[in-house]
C-alpha cells in the first residue's frame, strides 16, 4: 500500500513536470480525489515562486467548493506556506471563503506564528459583514494568547462590536479562559477585578475560570485564596468549583485534604459528579492505593454516578504501569460492552500502545481502535512513530510518516523532534541533519533542546573535521 502511494506520487510528479514545461497546453485533470491532486502539487512545488504555483493550480481545472478548500487546508495544518498560497489562489479563482474556511486559515497562521499574514487576513475579512463569528473570534483569541500576545488579545476583545459581536459575560469568560490556559492568570484576574469594579456581578462560572487558572498553574496558595473569596462572595461553590479545587489538591499530593473535601460535599448538599470521582480515583491510583480506587469505582454506580471513559482510563493507565495486562484488557472489554461515554478513546489506545513490547503488536491495537470507530490523531501518530524509532523498525517509521502526511496530521514539530533525537541516539548524524534542515525549510520552529542538540553536534563535527585536516596536513608535510 505504501509502495502504491509512493509510485502514485512519482507518476504525479512526472505528469506535472511534463505539462508545466508545455506552455501552450492547459489540461483539465480528471481525478477521483482532487484534494490529493492539489496536495501533491503543493508538496512538489511549495518552494516555487507564487505566480508559478498559481499558474499550476489554474491548470488543475478542479471545481472549487467549500468542502474541497477546507480539506486542502486541513491537510496542511503544519505547513502554513502552501496553505496560505492555496487560500489566496482560491479567492482569485472565484471562490468566496466561508467562515469555516477563514477560521481554518487563521488557525494555521496563528499556530505557525505568522501574525503579519494573520493581521492582513483579519483586516480583509472584517470588511465582510457577518463573516467573523464566535468560533472564529475564539480562534483569534486563542492564537494571540498562546503566543503570549496578551495586549493584542485584550484589544481584539474590545473591538468585538466592530465585528458585529456582543460584549457579553460569555465572551468575557472565553477571554479569561484563554488567558488562564496559557499561564497569564495574574493578568486574567486583574482584568476580572477591574470589570467587577464597574458594577458587574461575577457569576460562579467566571470565578471558576480564575480558580482553575491558578490550579492549572500549580499555585495552590493562590487557589486557596480564590477559594476563600468564592466562599465569602454571594456566589455558591458548585460541583465544578469542587472538581477544580480537588484536582489541584491531588496534583500537589494533598490527598488527605482532597478526600476530606470530597466527603464533605455530601454534607454541603453538593453531590460529587463523575469528574470529582475521577480526580480521587486517579490520585489514589497514583499513590498505589488501587484497592481504594476500585472501591470508589464500584460505589459510583450505586450512588447514581455512572463512570465514563476517563474513569476507566485512570485505572488502565496505572494497571499498564504495573503490567497487570489481564486486568487492563478486561477493563477495555467492559468499556466496549458499555459503549456510549465509556467507549475507548485515543487516550485509552495510547496507554495500550505504550505497554507494547515489539512492532508486531502495533497493528492489533490500531485495528481494534479502528473497529471501535476511534480515529487517528497527531498524538497517536507521533506515539507510534516514537515506538517504531525506538524499536529501529525502518519500515514502520516510513509507513507511519507517509500516512501522517497523507491524512493531514503532520509531520509536525513533535514528529521532527522525535526523528532528530532518536536518530541522534542511534548515531545517525546525516539523518539528524536531514530532518532538522527539512523542519527549518517548512518554517517549523524547533524546540530549544533540539537546537541545543544540533548546535553541539555541529561543534563535534567541526572538531572532528579540523582534527582530520590536521592529520592530513601532517602527512603531506612528512
TrEMBL record:
* MF GO annotations: mRNA binding
The GO biological-process annotations, alphabetized, read as: mitochondrion organization; RNA processing
One cellular component term (GO) for this entry is: mitochondrion
Q: Which UniProt keywords apply?
A: Repeat
Q: Does the keyword Transcription apply?
A: no
Q: Which superkingdom is the protein from?
A: Eukaryota
Q: Which PROSITE patterns match?
A: PPR
- Cite the repeat ranges for PPR: 203-237, 238-272, 273-307, 308-338, 377-411, 412-446
The record's InterPro entries line, in alphabetical order, gives: Mito_RNA_Proc_CCM1, PPR_rpt, TPR-like_helical_dom_sf
Describe the family membership recorded for this protein in Swiss-Prot or TrEMBL.
Belongs to the PPR family. P subfamily.
Entry-linked PANTHER family: MITOCHONDRIAL GROUP I INTRON SPLICING FACTOR CCM1-RELATED (PTHR47934:SF6), PENTATRICOPEPTIDE REPEAT-CONTAINING PROTEIN PET309, MITOCHONDRIAL (PTHR47934)
Protein name as annotated: Pentatricopeptide repeat-containing protein
